[in-house]
Amino acid sequence: MAYAKLEDVTGLGKSIVIRDKYTRVSFIAGSIQDEVSLSDGEQKHFIQRVQLADNVTCEGDATRHIFRIGYYTRRSDGWFCLGSQFAPMLTPAEIRELVRLADEKGWLTTR
Q: Measured between alpha carbons, how far is 90 from 111 in angstroms, rounded to an integer?
């Protein structure tokens, strides 16, 4: 799909395909249900809400949604790089804990 500008790039409705580290077999982890983003003109940073596929679970967590954090950017040849290759995927509990730890360190305080 061609995009006219970085702000138009989205993952909404797309599947997330990942490869099993051990078997190297690709599978659909889930689909992108919603996203929030901020663009600085060079990169569009996002958090996507992903509904897990029926056969995918998070070890020790009953959640059916995870969050994927990443960015979109434009390559030097003008084509869009649609997503960061190693975008982290976190459960709601994991993302809350990371934000709590960052806040505890004072990182979220405006000075």
A: 29
